[in-house]
Model the fold of this input.
Amino acid sequence: MSNAPALVAAAEPTLRGRIDPVELLRRYPRVALSAGLVALLFLVALLAPIISPHDPLAVEPDNAYLKPFTSGHVLGTDELGRDLLSRIIWGARVSLPVAFVAVGVGLVAGGLIGLVSGYKGGLTDLLLMRLIDALLAFPALILAIGIVAGLGPSLTNAMIAIGIVGIPVYARLVRAQTLQLRQMEFVTATRSLGAKPLRLVLGHIVPNLLNPVLVQVSLSAGFAILAEATLSFLGLGAQVPTPDWGQMINAGARFLSNDPWLAIAPGLGISISVYSFNLLGDALRDALDPRLRS
Amino acid sequence: MTTYVLRRLLLMLPVAFLVTVGVFLLIHLSRGDPALVLLGEDRSPQAIAAIHHELGLDQPLYVQYGIWLGRLARGDLGRSVITHQTVSDAILERLPATLELGVVALLWSLLVAIPLGTIAAVRRGSVADHLATGFTVGGVSVPNFFIGIVLIFVLSVSLHLFPFGGYVPLTRDPYESLRHVLLPAIALGTAGAAINMRFTRSSMIEVLNHDFIRTARAKGASWRRVVFAHALKNALIPVVTVVGLQIGGIIEGAIVTETVFTWPGVGRLAVESIFDRDYTVVQGIVLLAAFSYMFANLLVDLVYGWLDPRISYA
Done:
C-alpha cells in the first residue's frame, strides 16, 4: 500500500537496438513533454546558486513566518525566517543527486549481477538469484529503513539504502534480457566466430539492453526521489539545516493551521519531480514497446 | 497442487534463511550499542561488559545468530531493551490498529480503482480515460505523507470534518473508529488505487477484445451486462495479484502514514524504536514485514491458479 510498486516496471517488451533520440522526441509528444519537465528540473538544480533569490540557510528571525508574496519572499519564510522559495530551489540540488547516485548504485550492482547470472547460468545463476530473491523478500521501503536504521540516519546512508533497494529490480531485468539475447542468432554467430565472452557481453549484449534499462532508470529515479523524501520526512535522511524537501515537510507540518504553505510548497516540489520522472518512464515504455508501436 | 505448494515452500527456505541472516547482520552491525542506551549515565566498562554478557553480545557473531535463530524458531523475537516487553507482545498490541488501517486503505483503493479502471477501459480514448490514466501516474508520484498532510489541512484544520489524529478501536466505538481511520486510509490507499486502476484498465481492455465478449454482444446482451457480468469478473484476475502484494506490504506503507496521523500501529512502533535504538524491536518488525510479504507472494500465486484454472501448477 505504498508508492513502492512504481519501482518495478520495465517487464514489458521493449525495442532493442539504437533509437534516435530526436526521432523519439518528435514522434512521441508525451516523451517530449516529460523529457522537457525533467530537463527543467535539472536546470533548476544546476542554476540554484544563480536563480535562488536568497541564501537558503540564512536565518533571519525578524522575518519569520512571512506570508507568500511579502517583501521579496515569493513563497514567504519559515519559522527561522529562511526564504522558502530558495530552500525549495536548493532542495532540487539535494534530491536529484541523491536519486541519481542511488539509481547508479542499483544499476551498476544489479546490472552486473544480472549480466553474470544471465550469461553464465547454472550454479552461478542459482546462487545469485537466491540472493536477489532474499532482497526482493523485503518490501522496498522496509529494506531502505532497515538499512538506514543499521547504518545510522544521514543523507549518504539514505542514498546507499535506496541504491541497495534498487539492485534486485535491475538484476532481474538485465538477467531476463540477457537470457533472451544469449539465445539469439547474432550472439551465437559472434560466439562461433571466436569472440571472447567479455567482448560478446560488452559489444553485443549490453548495447541491446540499453532501451529497457533506460525506461527503468527513469522510473527508478522517481522512486528514489520519493524514497529519499520519505526517509528524510521520518528523520532518517537529510538532517537539519540541509534544505531537503522531505525534511521541510516534516518541519512545516507543525505549523499547518497558520502557515500551511511551509509543508505544501515542498510537497508540490516532490510530487512534480516524481511525476516528471514517472511520466518519462511511462512515455518511454509506451514508445519503445513494439506491440504499441505496430 | 499439494506438490506445487510443498515445492514453493521448499524453495522459500533458502530465501528465508538469507532473510534472517540479512536482518540479523543489519541490526548487529549497526552503530548503536544497546548497552549504552540501557545504562544511561553509568557507562563504566564493567557495566557495559555485564550488559553485553546478559544480552549475549560477548559471544562470537555466528553463536549469537544461532541462539537468535533458535529462539526465532520458537516464536521468541526477544525483548525490547527500553520497555522490557517481549517484541511479539509489542507487535501484537499494535497490530490491530495497523490491520484496521490497512484494510480500510485497501477497500478505499478498490472502491476508486475498479469503477475508474472499468470506465477508462470501456470509454477508451475519452476525456474520462485520459483523466484516469493521468491519475495512474499522479497517484504513485505524490508521497502518501504529503497526501496525509493536505487531507489534515483541508478536512480537519480548515473544515473541521474529521479528527486529525489518534485511534479509536473498532470494538469501542465503530462510528468514531471509522471517522478516525478514514483520512489515514485515504492517504495510505491512494497509491494503491492508482496501481489497481492501471491494472483494471489494461486487463479490462484485453478482456473486452476476446471472442466471448463479441459472442455475448452478438447474442443481444446489453453493454452493461457484458461489462459487469462477463468482462469484469475475468478482468479482475490480474488485479488480485497486485492486491495480494499490497496486503503483504501493509506494514511498509503504514510506517509513514502512522507517523503523520499519530496512529498507534506497528509502523509507528518501528520508527519510534529506530530513534530509541531499540534494535530488537526493529529487527522483529523488519522480519515480520519480510515474511508477510513472502507469504503474500505465495498466496497470490495459489489464489491466481484457483481463479484461473488454465494456469498449470505442473
